[in-house]
Amino acid sequence: MPKSMMRSEEHTDRISWRSVKAYCRCCGGFPWVAAFFASSVLERIALIFLDWWLARWAEEDSADERSMYFAVYFATVLLVIALVSFGRLVFAVATVNAGRRLFKQLALSVLRAPMWWWDTTPLGRVLNRFSFDTENTDTTLVTKLFPALQSMSWCWPYLCHTIPCCTSLPVVLIVLYLPSPLVSSWSYPFLHSFVLFHLFR
What we know:
- The chain is mostly helical.
- The protein has one domain.
- The chain contains eight helices and no strands.
- The protein has helices at 3-9, 17-27, 30-59, 66-111, 115-120, 123-168, 170-177, 180-200.
- α2 crosses α4 (66-111), α3 runs antiparallel to α4 and α4 (66-111) packs antiparallel against α6 (123-168).
- The longest helix has 46 residues, at 66-111.
């Protein structure tokens, strides 16, 4: 078996940074990725502010201030709706662009391949790349990627919110953050295998 076929048969349980960067470039590059993460972080900050503002509104006894509290609350709700809509729109457009560009690059690479590549590559593998792998990129990857990115972007506001509390209570900092590297190193192989199984099955 030629070495090129042997390399293509090799599988790995890790996604390289090269693949991640290539997918981000196909999505539109840094502006699109940054816009999605910024909208997600601002959305979570606005939701935290809504809870805080509602609690402050509940403690207010003056009837004269109710209109001001309602105006701020209503404006924040509109801001959350705008951020949610913007983030979903950016993600949808970026992933559609990524799917189109990846398929175009795949088609051009196959059409421009030399004859020796066709002699050494089974046609079933080529059809599999155009059918099953393309379907995974357009559907499975998108449906699994969106909640994962949302969870990552939501961690930052909560982390920034808990740090001031931990500075006043060092015991909370020790209990919450010090065991996290140990837990992550222990659960990473199981979590990584679980994600890859559901992502590429």
